[in-house]
């Protein structure tokens, strides 16, 4: 007989009821909850058969490789099921009830005999990683055979309404119909998809730590050839990199970055770090660019500040070691936004109640680069702002000229996302503005041949 070890929050129990109702009727549901709301607990409870009996057929959890062990710990901690992680050199445990694997393993031959079976229940964590139907990840997920599926994400929308339709399409055909529609008909169909398949969870005040957002505006000095860039997505991102430092092209390694001087963004960052460290507050610093991460690391070394680093080129064991170092020894963690967004829980330390760095959750977040998708910032906040972190959080955005332009687009997209997920009734004029914003954003994401 199944036993759940622990007591979920009331809102989690409510969401489990809603998700089970959708899954019973539609066979698939999306749980769009804020990062830090405890999606894993809701998913495990939603995946269990009624009556509390053990699953007669195995369940599969698919997640980024950086959180596979975290999922295994959740299964052991909160249930009496036996998990088995399918990754690397691990072997298939025939006695396991729940199997856990990464997106990359779905296309591997190693576990095909296990993964190709008919699953009773599939949980897909960070489903937004598979929303692009032109990727191998998306195609591999569509090949999975399961009776029921639950998809988890804090960012169901990326650049357009099509995203959430594409996510549902992995287990319920709907994208081809959506693509044949235009204008407000597309909006109406996307609304129906959200209404039928999505459970939204925004945590109320009191459940999450208080949040203070500060903005520091800096004026960057750009090389002339970069300052002339005005359009084209790839070109604008190129400009955003140079607004971190005019010599960012030299920062291919930490050693080469050590030869580069400061910049307005770098000065603003270390001003924030100085204040945080003097107050004994741990700080997470995020940037979208690895070269800027090299530069930040070089200056941390110069100034003798202890730190840990995470980026996309590190192995899982190296990431785990960096996380342990941050939670127990040092007060600064620098990371690429993309890597930190892969379900990492950077909030509470491993050993609450101990002395020193351990037991003190990080409370300071510094974001060095804005992004077009407003849910990305929500996800960045969620690395620290969680229901199990009791301390107030301060987020500082260090913004250049291009960051401010990106934020304006992001704010307009935020209106669309809130309108869709919270089922708000927006006027026809508001929807027309949102659709126009989508069209403009699509053009921004298309390379401008004149700038190439």
So what's the CATH class of the largest domain? Alpha Beta
Q: What form results from the Cα inertia axes?
A: globular
| Low-confidence segments | 349-356, 441-452
Kindly name the structural category: alpha/beta
Q: And the CATH topology of the largest domain?
A: Rossmann fold
Quantity of strands, as a count:
13
Strand content is: 15-25%
What order do the strands of the largest sheet run in, or round the barrel if closed?
3-4-2-5-6-1-7
* Mean of residue pLDDT values: 82
Second-tier CATH architecture of the largest domain: 3-Layer(aba) Sandwich
The fourth-level CATH homologous superfamily of the largest domain is: P-loop containing nucleotide triphosphate hydrolases
List the domain count as a whole number.
2
> Distance N terminus to C terminus?
63 Å
Task: Give the helix level as a range of percent.
Answer: 40-55%
Biggest beta sheet summary:
7 strands, parallel
Tally of contiguous helical segments: 18
Q: What does the radius of gyration come to? A: 22 Å
């Amino acid at each position: 007989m199944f036993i759940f070890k622990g007591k979920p929050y009331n809102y989690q129990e409510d969401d489990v009821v809603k998700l089970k109702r959708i899954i019973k009727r539609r066979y698939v549901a999306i749980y769009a909850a804020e990062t830090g709301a405890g999606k894993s607990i809701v998913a495990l409870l939603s995946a269990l058969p009624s009556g509390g009996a053990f699953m007669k057929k195995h369940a599969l959890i698919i997640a980024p490789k950086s959180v596979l062990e975290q999922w295994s710990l959740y299964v052991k901690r909160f249930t009496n099921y036996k998990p088995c992680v399918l990754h690397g050199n691990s072997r298939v445990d025939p006695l396991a009830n729940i199997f856990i694997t990464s997106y990359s393993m779905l296309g591997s031959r190693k576990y095909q005999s296990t993964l190709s079976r008919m699953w009773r229940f599939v949980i897909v964590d960070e489903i937004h990683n598979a929303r692009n139907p032109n990727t191998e990840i998306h195609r591999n997920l569509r090949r999975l055979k399961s009776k029921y599926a639950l998809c988890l994400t804090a960012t169901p929308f990326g650049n357009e309404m099509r995203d959430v339709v594409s996510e549902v399409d992995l287990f319920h055909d709907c994208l081809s119909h959506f693509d044949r529609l235009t204008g407000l008909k597309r909006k109406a169909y996307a609304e129906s998809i959200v209404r039928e398949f999505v459970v939204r969870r925004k945590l109320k005040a009191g459940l999450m730590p208080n949040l203070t957002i500060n903005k520091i505006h800096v004026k960057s000095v750009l090389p002339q050839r970069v300052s002339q860039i005005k359009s084209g997505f790839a070109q604008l991102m190129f400009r955003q990199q140079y607004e971190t430092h005019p010599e960012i092209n030299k920062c291919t390694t930490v050693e080469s970055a050590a030869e580069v001087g400061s910049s307005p963004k770098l000065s603003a960052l270390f001003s924030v770090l100085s204040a945080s460290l003097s107050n004994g507050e741990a700080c997470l610093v995020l940037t979208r660019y690895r070269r800027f991460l090299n530069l930040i690391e070089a200056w941390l070394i110069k100034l003798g500040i202890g730190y840990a680093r995470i980026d996309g080129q590190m192995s899982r064991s190296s990431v785990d070691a960096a996380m342990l170092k941050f939670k127990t020894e040092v007060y600064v963690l620098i990371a690429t936004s993309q890597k930190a967004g892969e379900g990492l829980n950077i909030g509470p330390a491993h050993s609450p109640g101990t002395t020193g760095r351990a037991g003190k959750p990080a409370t300071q977040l510094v974001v060095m680069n804005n992004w077009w998708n407003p849910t990305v910032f929500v996800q960045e906040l969620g690395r620290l702002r969680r229901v199990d972190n009791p301390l107030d959080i301060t987020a500082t955005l260090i913004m250049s000229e291009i960051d401010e332009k990106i934020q304006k687009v992001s704010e307009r997209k935020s209106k669309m996302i809130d309108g869709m997920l919270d089922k708000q009734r927006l006027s026809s004029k508001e929807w027309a503005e949102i659709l126009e914003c989508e069209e403009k954003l699509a053009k921004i994401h298309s390379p401008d041949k004149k700038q190439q």
